[in-house]
Design goal:
It is built from seven helices and eleven strands. With 258 residues, it is of the alpha+beta class. Helices cover 29% and strands 22% of the residues. The protein has two domains: 2-78, Ubiquitin-like (UB roll); 130-251, no CATH class. The strands form three sheets. Strands 2-1-5-3-4 form a five-stranded mixed β-sheet, with helices on both faces. Strands 8-9-10-11 form a four-stranded antiparallel β-sheet. Strands 6-7 form a two-stranded antiparallel sheet. It binds iron/sulfur cluster (SF4). Iron/sulfur cluster is lined by residues 134-135, 139, 141, 143-144, 166-172, 192, 200.
Amino acid sequence: MATIKVNGKTVTADESMTVLAVARREGIDIPTLCFHEGLGPYGACRLCVVEAESPQLRRSLVTSCTLAVSEGLSVETETPLVAASRRIIFELLLGRTPDSSRLREMAKRYGVETSRFRAAESDDCVRCGLCVRACRDKIGVAAISFAGRGQKRRVTAEFGKLSEACVGCGACANVCPTGAVRLEDKGGERTIFLKNNLIGRFPLVRCGNCGTPYATKQFLDHVASRNSEQPRTKQGGLCPECERAHYAEAIVAEFSAS
Ligand code: SF4
């Protein structure tokens, strides 16, 4: 455990925690775009900067999602320097993604409604990398990645075509903070769009109990292969709701029998 100061308040926190986690625990609002609980720190969007100093660290602006708690650390989340830095970052992001309503709403909450910047190519993607990391680190597929540098850096599937690696899990769309990656389930079919490009189209497997279309065969087979199980598609798998009900019934039956 370490004793630190956050906005002048003395708190204790485990040294495995980040400053962002401590601030959230203390009810302090710090904006983030590239942070996701399930994926860990990345420090790409830099919206979560705070002013910090400690016996080892000269007072400076640091991303709170990557800054670990340490004894004697002192953090300020709302100084004029932090506010000015956030403002510039929001303006740069708005210059690149002026049509993202989620970003516009977020920027407005921090007093930014216009941008002095305008990127040569604008779209909804803020280049936070959440979709790329979810696909690679959580799903273990890496069907999408970054390509290009600087202003030309963008998220893309293989050669901008339908991805052969994609299993249609939808994790990328679930973590995307702006809606640049989209999932549509319609007519028993799932489509995944990366901005306006179609990267995956899959028929959906129906639940063996209620008949609801709920996942792609490719995803169920992928999960089964990682868990060394029989593919659930061969056994007539259950959707999450029916699986929960099935387990609840099994537990009740077990208690009743004992
Ligand atoms: S839907 Fe395809 S691209 Fe998106 S995370 Fe799943 S495998 Fe990766």
